[in-house]
């Protein structure tokens, strides 16, 4: 790959990472409720999901799904179901008794009635992983990106190196988001406007899930 190809790949990838989406919202809300440590584990889960999609792309799964669209449809429905259920769980948590004590290790959904709660590392990691894996369109995007950027006959080592660089960018970006999400100003703002924030986030996740099916 020449410098132009690398530049195009890195710029396209970086722009796709920093665009707000389910991954970003999951990290942001986790940091506001559970703190930086939890948000960083969510970020690691997101990065693991991206790694899975990249590996599957390099293995040629995107081409297989084009031949067998039924499998892709099932993946979309499962992903959409996860996003809708997560969105509903956020909305439901908003209506809980505000005095209810947070329960550590609340599961993959992670909603808690108030900031300052805690949950297990696995719950945080699983949330990030499942949120990212819920969108199989990532596989289509990665496949198209690689086909467009890589020259014909590019070696496997070149593709693996590129995938490693893309994962590194992903980890850096979402770790930065997690650090910012756990800042005192974000936590304070969340506490003050939790009802509105959770309403917006819950509705957004539900709409993203529905859009995954219909668009």
From TrEMBL:
* Cross-referenced InterPro entries: LeuE-type (IPR001123)
Single GO cellular component term: plasma membrane
Q: Please give the start and end residues of each transmembrane region.
A: 6-28, 40-59, 71-92, 138-157, 163-184, 196-214
> Membrane: present as a keyword of the record?
yes
Q: Which Pfam families match?
A: LysE
Q: Name one GO molecular function term.
A: amino acid transmembrane transporter activity
Question: What keywords would UniProt list here?
Answer: Cell membrane, Membrane, Transmembrane, Transmembrane helix
Membrane topology note? Multi-pass membrane protein
Q: Where in the cell is it found?
A: Cell membrane
What is the protein name given in its UniProt record? Threonine efflux protein
């Amino acid at each position: 790959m020449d410098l132009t190809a690398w530049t195009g790949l890195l710029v396209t990838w970086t722009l796709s990472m920093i665009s707000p989406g389910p991954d970003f919202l999951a990290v942001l809300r986790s940091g506001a409720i559970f703190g930086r440590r939890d948000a960083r584990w969510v970020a690691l889960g997101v990065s693991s999901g991206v790694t899975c999609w990249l590996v599957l792309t390099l293995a040629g799964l995107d081409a297989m799904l084009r031949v067998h669209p039924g499998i892709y449809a099932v993946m979309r429905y499962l992903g959409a179901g996860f996003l809708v259920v997560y969105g509903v769980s956020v909305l439901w948590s908003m209506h809980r008794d505000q005095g209810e004590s947070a329960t550590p290790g609340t599961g993959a959904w992670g909603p808690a009635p108030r900031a300052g709660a805690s949950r297990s590392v696995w719950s945080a990691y699983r949330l990030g992983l499942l949120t990212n894996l819920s969108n199989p369109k990532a596989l289509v995007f990665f496949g198209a990106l690689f086909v467009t950027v890589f020259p014909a006959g590019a070696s496997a080592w070149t593709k693996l190196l590129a995938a490693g660089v893309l994962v590194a960018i992903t980890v850096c970006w979402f770790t930065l988001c997690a650090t910012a999400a756990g800042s005192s100003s974000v936590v304070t703002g969340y506490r003050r406007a939790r009802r509105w924030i959770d309403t917006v986030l819950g509705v957004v996740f539900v709409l993203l899930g529905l859009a995954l099916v219909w668009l």
